Amino acid sequence: MIVEVSNILKRFDDLVALDNLSIKVQEGEIYGLLGPNGSGKTTLINCILSLLKYEQGEVLLFGEEMSPKRYDLKGNIGYVPQEIAVFEELNVYDNIDFFCGLYISDKKKRKKYVEEAIEFVGLNDFKKFYPKKLSGGLKRRLNLACGISHKPKLLILDEPTVAVDPQSRNSILEGIKRLNKEGATIIYTTHYMEEVEQICTKITIIDKGKNLITGNKYELKKAVGLVDTLILKDIECSDEDIENISNELHESVVKRIGNELHISIKDSMLVSKVLSYIEHNNIYFGGMTVKSPTLNDVFLEITGKELRDY
Ligand SMILES: Nc1ncnc2c1ncn2[C@@H]1O[C@H](COP(=O)(O)OP(=O)(O)O)[C@@H](O)[C@H]1O
Ligand SMILES: [Mg+2]
User: Fold this and answer.
1) Residue 185 near ligand 1, beta carbon < 6 Å
2) pLDDT, tens digit, 9 for 90 and up, residues 81-127
3) Which atom of ligand 1 is nearest to the CA of 35?
4) CATH 3.40.50.300 residue ranges for the chain
5) Ligand nearest to the CA of 210
6) Which residue in 304, 294, 296 sits closest to 35, CA to CA?
7) Where is the ABC transporter domain (predicted)?
8) CB of 140 within 8 A of CB of 160?
9) Cα-Cα-Cα-Cα dihedral sign, residues 56, 3, 214, 162
10) What is the mean pLDDT of residues 148-161?
């Protein structure tokens, strides 16, 4: 186990920011912490890194108990904070070199690592630029380069794509996938469910400091009873046909909405049953699509609120 957080309780005065929260991150995962603003994601990261004290609970990193003085453990971690943390008085190259130098003392090796990080985030043309000359997206990429240059085994990224242009966002997401393929375990916090769907192999949905549910995206949707909906457009069928299809599909819900037929598909094998009924009864339809539930739907099922409302 790379990270094991057990029953963390963290208060800020009267506010319970982490409420008996536990997570386990295994080697090779891209672990997403998905939750609205204020749900406790950054607080959790700060507790994992021993940057904050907590009232109760335990954090194990690489199987060992984490504490503020465990520099040996910290050397295996890359941390990209939510607030951009780079030195305004250092240029791009020197910023990355500084952070890399905290862990890599061999000069030759460090030069290689810094160059690789620059290449990785696509800042080759900006090596001599000072941060204030960089756009928001490029600054984010610099922040990322500072966190990854020492090639950590565990990389923790706190909302690395907030307020960046789509091009930088894609470059960051693709970069994270590549680092993961090269062996890094990733913890990724965000309030953007699309990003979690795109890159995370495991997800914890967090709200009000609680772990609401954990699993891969399919498990989360299944756990709250959400299934794909097959939509047949411009269909010409009778109410009797709808009843027959319902009967064939047992528990699936079949609904006519306007001139569409919406069929919830609990098991993908049922699709062929629907299509074969339609073929045998010469039913005309104009086209079809499949609508899959989103993580917003999962969040809505559990909390009664929309994730995107925040
Ligand atoms: N230093 C602090 N002092 C008091 N309250 C805090 C502090 N840091 C965070 N909080 C509160 O803790 C809760 C969780 O915050 P945070 O972990 O930053 O959430 P997230 O990262 O998910 O947006 C919020 O209600 C926030 O206002
Ligand atoms: Mg945060």
Assistant:
1) no
2) 989 999 999 999 999 999 999 999 999 999 999 999 999 899 999 99
3) 22
4) 3-222
5) 1
6) 296
7) 3-233
8) yes
9) positive
10) 94
